[in-house]
Amino acid sequence: MSTALPRRPRAIGSAPWAFSFVGAGLILAATLAFTGGVGAGQILSTALTFATMYVIVGLGQMFVITTGPGNVDLSIPAIIALAGTVSMVVMGESDARIALGLASALGVGIAVGCFNYALIRLLSIPPIIATLSASFLVQSTAIAYGRGLRVRPPEGFAAFATGRVLGIPYLAIATLVLSALMAVLLHRTVYGRSVSAIGQNGRAAGLAGIRVDRVRFLTYVLSAALAGLCGAGLSGFSGGSSLNMGEEYLLASIAVVVVGGSSVSGGRSNVAGLWGASLFLYLLVTMLNTFGVGAGLRLLLTGVIIVAIITLAGGRRGERA
User: Fold this and answer.
1) pTM, whole model, 2 decimals?
2) Closest C-alpha to 245, from 99, 88, 65
3) Residue 16 above 80 pLDDT?
4) Which residue among 137, 162, 186, 269 sits deepest, i.e. has the most Cβ atoms within 10 Å of its Cβ?
5) pLDDT surpasses 50 at 105
């Protein structure tokens, strides 16, 4: 006589990434019900644009968090500010220098990523402290380099950053391609599998022959490079760089990873959930604005709802463990 337990039916909990999409859908439905369906297309198109920025920085943060507890990159906002400023200055409002400007944004990110890991590895500073300390230095560099000036992007780059095809932003399409590449990197390459293995058990990964320090170094560089790319894209979309344009991405880059279904303790992550979580965050703010909620109460409610979602999602993942 078999003693096997009956199989539980599959549910949202069996696909962590689906949880964020369901939440985004419910919030969108509530918003459209309040407005009577007016502006649905505009809301979705705008949501895709802003969600794109969350996804770009979330991809990098996801790899960092996947490497295990305590690993997080808090230098992302400062990198966005510096890379945005440098890229716009390098482009010099010339379409012929767009590629060079994007390369400079990536270069800024790579340099900061190397510096971050140097603080972590050589000085044995915890990642949270190291990346936060680096952010102050990077932000100061951005202030000194940009001198408060707002350099406009080239017309061609601005047209791409703000353009749409069939209501879908070009940036969203490009970021979807980037997401697919990052999914392949995470799940189909030695590097990606090493990241997950380190997050599950760093010591065991080292004993299995994985070069833990090298993988972690590449991960922090990848996170910073993607933040630099986001800085360039955000500058093109907003009509120029500014020193405070990265502020909202400090906690958002972490929230989209966790709300999207990745484990905050490391070892398990997914790319698809980043899109659902990013749409969730933007649509949540849109809903509260539509309801006429004041700025202070809006921030409070946003924080409470995000914490509730993270707790609920984390609890479901804990039950499956």
Assistant:
1) 0.87
2) 88
3) no
4) 269
5) yes
User: 250 versus 319: which is more confidently predicted?
Assistant: 250
Phi-psi region of 215 (alpha: psi -120 to 50; beta: other; left: phi over 0): alpha
Q: Is residue 25 exposed (0-12), middle (13-18) or buried (19+ Cβ within 10 Å)?
A: middle
pLDDT over 50 (residue 123): yes
In this structure, what token pair is assigned to residue 27?
């919030």
Q: How far apart are CA 69 and CA 200, in angstroms?
A: 10
Distance, CA of 229 to CA of 93 (rounded, Å): 18
Task: Pull the structure tokens for residue 35.
Answer: 């407005």
Q: How many residues does the chain have?
A: 321
Nearest to 253 by CA among 114, 45, 72, 22: 72
Nearest Cα neighbor of 266 from 258, 275, 274 is 258
Structure tokens at 272: 């698809």
Residue identified by tokens 């890229």 is 87
Task: Tell me the percentage of the chain whose pLDDT exceeds 90.
Answer: 48
